[in-house]
C-alpha cells in the first residue's frame, strides 16, 4: 500500500526533478504500474477501504435492534431507557461499554429516519402521478 508521504515523493520526483517512472519505481522498490497510476491520477491521497473491526456488540445487535423496534412503538412513559437495555444486555453476557450501545442506538435511529423519509418520498411521488385512486 502507498501512503501520502510516498505519494508526495513520487509526484515531486516526477514533476519537479524530472525522474523517469522506471527510475522512481527502482528507487522506491515498487511497481512501475503503481507509480504510473498515482502520477496520472488526480487523487491527492490514496483511498483505502474502511476498516471493519469486530465489536463485542456484534453478537447482540439483532436482539438490541428488536428491543429498539419494540420500544419505538410504545408511548414515551412506557419505554425502557437505553440504560435499562444496556443492563439487560449485561445479564445476557455483553461485556462491552454503554457507549457502544448508545452509539448503536443513535445509528439505528438515523437508519429508521432514513427509511421513513424514503418511504414518504415514494408515497408522495406516487400520489402526484395524476392517477386518481378512485
Can you tell me about this structure?
By secondary structure, this protein is mainly alpha-helical. It is built from 6 helices and no strands. The longest helix is centred in the C-terminal third of the chain and has 30 residues. The protein is elongated. The mean pLDDT is 85.
Topology of this structure?
Blueprint: H1 4-16, H2 21-28, H3 32-40, H4 61-72, H5 82-92, H6 98-127
Helix pairs in contact: 2-3, 4-6
Identify the overall geometry. elongated
Tally of DSSP β-strands: 0
Structural class: mainly alpha
Task: Characterize the main sheet.
Answer: none
| Count of DSSP-assigned helices | 6
Summary tags:
single chain, 134 residues, mainly alpha, elongated
